[in-house]
Each structure stands twice: as structure tokens, then as C-alpha cells.
């Protein structure tokens, strides 16, 4: 299998952390690329021209990141990061959606900031910032009750927080959410997180 990714992509980091947590490194070759460059191999497997994309050995490909992580999790059902059923499954999937939503709002903000200033939209920037702030408040409310066993929910939260810190440090979420900061610092000690830092 081949994973198209970039070190700075929070969605790709989520997939790479899952690969490391599940010990699948030996089965997946990485290909770093930017979707903003012309990469014919990426477009050939993902018509959306986005990363992450996982090209399978049978010539098919999986995207986007929630589909890829569900597939990777299924390869080793004994060590699941997404519960197979029950209330826990919906909690983890909802947490993934919350973390992915922070990534979406942050990524849009970063891309918007690279457009000519006259074309940037203050309305959209405010909307994305408000979504990030509300999502962080929800995360704060549940951080003390996160399960001990790491799940895809934990991983997605950590990758979203790492991306905010990397690309939008001015948000300074640590100052408003010290409980989240303490949890993030502890979770970031995991080898899967340390080896996938966006600034590495
Ligand atoms: N929902 C997608 C989002 C993927 C995504 O937007 N990736 C960015 C890089 S961080 C990308 O490839 N953007 C290229 C584009 O928007 O054209 C996922 O979870 O995989």
C-alpha cells in the first residue's frame, strides 16, 4: 500500500498516527507530495486531488481520511481504535468529526490567508474562527472524561490541536484551555505523535 501525504497535513497526520498505533508501518510505503503541486500519480488515484489518499495493492484507492482510518482499523480487529459497535462507536466517530471540523476551519483560514488581501473574506474568517472556538469549548467539556484507552477520537483531537498550534499560533488555545493543553502535552509524548510532528 502507498500513502500519499504531507508532513504538514493534519488529516494525513491522523492517518499516520493510526498506522503507527496499529504497528502497520511495514505494510505501507509513504509518498510525500503537495496537492497544490501537479502530482499526476495523486490525481490518477484520487480525482479530488487531495491528501491523504491510500493506494491499495489491488490498484484501487481509499479517501478521505475517515475512510482510510476505518480501513486501517479493520486490518487488526483485535486492537481497535474505533469501537465496532455500541455507544462508544458513535462517541469516537463524533469526536473524529469534531476534530476534523477544526482542521477544516483552520485549513480554510490558512488557505484564505494566502490569497491576495483584497480577495480575503472577513465574514468567512470570522465564521471559521467561531467554529474553532465553539469546538474547543466542547472538547474542553469532555477532556476529563476521555477514555483511558486511546481511540481515534483522541488521535483526531490531538492532530487538530497540533495543527492549530503549528499554523495559527495567534489563536493561543492553550491560554483559554489549560486542561486541554495538559492533556495534549501528555498525549503528544506517544511515539506515534512525536514521530509525526508537522514541524519535524
Ligand atoms: N476531508 C478530507 C480533507 C483532506 C484535505 O482537505 N486535505 C488537504 C491538505 S491538508 C488537501 O489536500 N487540499 C487540497 C485541496 O483542497 O485542493 C480528509 O479528511 O481527508
Please trace the helix and strand order, writing H or E for each element. EHEHEEHHHHHHH
- List the ions, cofactors and other small molecules found in this model: glutathione
Helix count?
A: 9
What's the architecture of the largest domain, going by CATH? Up-down Bundle
Low-pLDDT regions: none
Category from helices, strands and their pairing:
alpha+beta
Instruction: Assign the CATH topology of the largest domain.
Output: Glutathione S-transferase Yfyf (Class Pi), Chain A, domain 2
Q: How far is the N terminus from the C terminus?
A: 23 Å
Helix share, percent: 55-70%
The biggest sheet amounts to: 4 strands, mixed
- Give the CATH level 1 class of the largest domain: Mainly Alpha
β-strand percent reads 5-15%
Strand order of the largest sheet: 2-1-3-4
Q: How many domain regions?
A: 2
Overall geometry comes to globular
Provide structural commentary.
- The chain is α+β, with helices and mostly antiparallel strands.
- The chain has two domains: 2-74, Glutaredoxin, CATH 3.40.30.10; 87-190, Up-down Bundle (Glutathione S-transferase Yfyf (Class Pi), Chain A, domain 2).
- Helices cover 55% and strands 6% of the residues.
- The chain has nine helices and four strands.
- It has helices at residues 10-21, 40-45, 65-74, 87-113, 122-142, 152-167, 173-176, 178-187, 191-194; strands at residues 2-5, 29-32, 53-55, 61-62.
- It has a four-stranded mixed beta sheet.
- Strand 1 (2-5), helix 1 (10-21) and strand 2 form a beta-alpha-beta unit.
- Helix 1 packs parallel to helix 3 (65-74) and helix 1 crosses helix 6.
- It is globular, with a radius of gyration of 17 Å.
- 32% of the residues are buried.
- The protein binds glutathione (GSH).
- The site of glutathione (GSH) has 11 residues, from helix 4.
